[in-house]
């Protein structure tokens, strides 16, 4: 069936992979990418689909009610996949309100626009909200996040995402909107903005800059290749059950310090440096305030009920990722100029 899908945040890291997958895999769908092009949005991420007949870009802010209304009407939107968000925990610590505005107010604005446009046919349309495992809080004593793990967000970012998840469920319950939510673990891969751990380290190893490891580097994250997340979103969008939540993850836990050391050794090899050279760049810095210790997703439900599983092993994904950054210097030059440099020196010092 032909659809006109509004994907928000499609110029960002994960959104760009989702847009590309949907445009290429579903030529009968019209894909409308709505993005405000904040510092994290980059149309260079979408070069592969630019000019494709089933792809449309709309520059708009999800906080702008009239813009949303016009876009729903102009493209007769049938479904929404909502990824637009402020996504960086460190930024949420310095500017929590920006996260409330986009992640909470923006999401409710989008829910309203969908509800108004779909009116009494709400059950014919899907509002898919893309969320994070951080809403479950921090694991300290083993175990995994399950879909029914109680929410316990610890940072302004995760509190804003938890709030947006609650609003989506409230719209499903109150207005009988057809919704689905997925909560994913840490993604890595091409197009990842270099304020996040993996691309920041790749960039700094390449340019011989210090590798800032927060605290003792003992915090654990569960890493998934971004294209596998995009495949999971495709699966949930088409096969997910109304009102359900699906956790997405790679069963792939790493301590931060081990990831940083792995990147150092792989890049020493690729850059023809003597083994051990890049590790000397590791610098332990002040810990993130309220730093969550460990995230780990149990992705059994999506595997068993919807048949999704990661396609790439971490070793393979990290090779692809490093090679992509080494082969896309222009992309890095563009995103590491101007505003990024200001942010970087404010956060880490010069
Ligand atoms: P990102 O920061 O790379 O991209 C966010 C995109 O949203 C950017 O293109 C930005 O321009 C756009 N945007 C921001 N504010 C907007 C606004 N007010 N109106 C319209 N567009 C706006 O983020 P990402 O890492 O790609 O994350 C995408 C989504 O996935 C987010 O909702 C995030 O919470 C979630 N998520 C991310 C991860 C991860 O590891 N990166 C893991 C799980 C879930
Ligand atoms: O778990 C999913 C979440 O993963 C997403 O919802 C977020 O949008 C995404 O940004 C990511 O959050 P994290 O805070 O886990 O990612 P980040 O890359 O910022 O940090 C990963 C770990 O590395 C974390 O424990 C903090 C640490 N870190 C990070 C940076 C930027 C450092 O030690 N040094 C750094 O310079």
UniProtKB/TrEMBL annotation:
Its cofactor is: NAD(+)
GO terms of biological process kind: nucleotide-sugar metabolic process
Enzyme class, UniProt record, top EC level: lyase
Give one GO term, molecular function aspect: dTDP-glucose 4,6-dehydratase activity
> Is the keyword Lyase assigned to this protein?
yes
Question: Is Lyase included in the keywords of this UniProt record?
Answer: yes
> Which reaction is the catalytic activity of this chain?
dTDP-alpha-D-glucose = dTDP-4-dehydro-6-deoxy-alpha-D-glucose + H2O
Xref: Gene3D superfamilies: NAD(P)-binding Rossmann-like Domain (3.40.50.720), UDP-galactose 4-epimerase, domain 1 (3.90.25.10)
Instruction: Give its E.C. classification number.
Output: 4.2.1.46
Sequence ranges assigned to domain NAD(P)-binding in this UniProt record: 6-320
Keyword entries, A-Z? Lyase, NAD
Q: Which SUPFAM superfamilies match?
A: NAD(P)-binding Rossmann-fold domains
Concerning its family, UniProt says:
Belongs to the NAD(P)-dependent epimerase/dehydratase family. dTDP-glucose dehydratase subfamily.
- Name of the protein described by the UniProt record: dTDP-glucose 4,6-dehydratase
């Amino acid at each position: 069936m032909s659809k006109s899908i509004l994907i928000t945040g499609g110029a960002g890291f994960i959104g760009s992979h989702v847009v590309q997958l949907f445009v290429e895999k579903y030529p009968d769908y019209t894909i409308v990418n709505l993005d405000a092009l904040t510092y994290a949005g980059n149309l260079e991420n979408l070069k592969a689909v630019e000019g494709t007949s089933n792809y449309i870009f709309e520059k708009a802010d999800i906080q702008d009610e009239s813009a949303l209304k016009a876009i729903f009407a102009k493209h007769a939107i049938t479904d929404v996949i909502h990824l637009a968000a402020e996504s960086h925990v460190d930024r949420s610590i310095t500017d929590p309100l920006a996260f409330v505005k986009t992640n909470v107010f923006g999401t409710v604005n989008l829910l309203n626009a969908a509800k108004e446009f779909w009116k009494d046919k709400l059950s014919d349309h899907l509002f898919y909200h893309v969320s994070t495992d951080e809403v479950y809080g921090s694991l300290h004593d083993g175990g995994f996040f399950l879909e029914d793990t109680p929410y316990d967000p610890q940072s302004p970012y995760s509190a804003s995402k938890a709030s947006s998840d609650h609003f989506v469920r409230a719209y499903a319950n109150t207005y009988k909107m057809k919704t689905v939510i997925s909560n994913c673990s840490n993604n890595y891969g091409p197009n990842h903005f270099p304020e996040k751990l993996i691309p920041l380290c790749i960039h700094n190893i390449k340019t011989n800059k210090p590798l800032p490891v927060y605290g003792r580097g003992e915090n654990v994250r569960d890493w998934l290749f971004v294209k596998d997340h995009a495949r999971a979103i495709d699966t949930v969008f088409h096969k997910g059950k109304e009102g359900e939540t699906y956790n997405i993850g790679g069963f792939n836990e790493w301590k931060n310090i081990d990831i940083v050391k792995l990147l150092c050794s792989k890049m020493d090899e690729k850059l023809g440096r003597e083994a051990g050279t890049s590790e000397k760049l590791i610098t332990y810095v002040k810990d993130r305030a309220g730093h969550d210790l460990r995230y780990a997703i149990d992705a059994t439900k999506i595997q068993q009920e919807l048949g999704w599983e990661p396609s790439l092993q971490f070793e393979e994904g990290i090779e692809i990722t490093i090679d992509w950054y080494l082969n896309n210097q222009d992309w890095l030059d563009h995103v590491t100029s101007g505003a990024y440099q200001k942010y970087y020196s404010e956060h880490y010092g010069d």
